[in-house]
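<amino_acid_chain>
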Amino acid sequence: MLLVHPVRFFELLPRIPDMRAPALFLIFSGFPAAIVWLLFWGLYPMLVALVLPLPLSFLLAGLYHLGVLDGRHGYVVTWRVLAYPLGFYLPFAAVPVLGLLGAAYTGLVLMPLGLAEVHEIGRPRAVLFCAAVGVVVGAAYYFVSVA
């Protein structure tokens, strides 16, 4: 439903500060992601794909929450909005061309729609802030990979 009807998905997303369902989704989505990472990149990237999504999601949710500080809900609801697109994106991140396309779709379509719908902020504001987060994360990835 997230791919086909993202607005409807975020309309139905519970706005409660419960972390269990999204955390389990991230943990279980790490398994198919780990298989894909193993096939394309090897053992160590597979282990990173298993361990990193949950801690990384908390950091990314903090960045995204800065853009919705005057929104309707708190940090945990922002994290819920991030967890589902991130879990969906994880297997695609390993595939060379699909990784970039999936990152663009997740960061510039799913996240702004989710933040705008759940926090009841304007869509242009959500798109601009998500693009800014994408630039910051992309630059950090570039500098880490070059160094």
Observations:
- The chain has a mean pLDDT of 93.
